[in-house]
Structure of Sugar O-acyltransferase, sialic acid O-acetyltransferase NeuD family:
Amino acid sequence: MKSPLYAVYGASGCGRGIMPLAKAQLHEQGIDAARLVFIDDSPAAGLINGHRVLTYDEFLAHDAGSRYAILAIANSVVREKLAQRCAADGVQPWTVRAANVITMDDVTLGEGAALSPFVTLTSNIRIGRHFHANLYSYVEHDCVIGDFVTFAPGVKCNGNIHIHDHAYIGADAVIKQGKPDRPLVIGRGAVVGMGAVVTRSVPPGATVVGNPATRLVRK
């Protein structure tokens, strides 16, 4: 039986941060690091941090019984397109999580998540597909997070918050706790700027910055 082949799709900064986590996870499962590669559509080198870099076509052509990939692409729109591409070619989504990630009670996590060191998911949480949670981020109780949402490092997502698909939450942003009957909502495709303190709902597609966070109006 042919062995599976695993990949981190994206060999730039995001991918290089996820690769050691992926390697450690496979090691715990007794899978040789030689079965782990980078995928990059325009590879700058054939080897990065000791791992082979393949184009997507090379990855598909490689001898393997099955193929898995985690999408280490910060841009959520590109991430969704690559997810569709992989699904069409039979490449299965793969969740990678650091060994010290804390998950508490009743947490549902969609496929293809990337959970960096010191991430905490508390209780009664629903998270969609291909979620990225960077270093020291947390999600508190009774939150609902959509597909292709990205948390930069240090995001503080407090309780009773709904974050819709493709939202981006910047580094060290704080989202105030909502109420059980009136959750605070971050709309689809919204951007919360670095260090913003969000005290009210954010409309779809809006960018908010500052403390308290206000909508950025482009001139």
Observations:
- Helices lie at 13-28, 56-61, 76-88.
- Residues 97-209 form a domain with the UDP N-Acetylglucosamine Acyltransferase; domain 1 fold (CATH 2.160.10.10).
- The mean pLDDT is 96.
- The first strand starts at residue 5 and ends at 9.
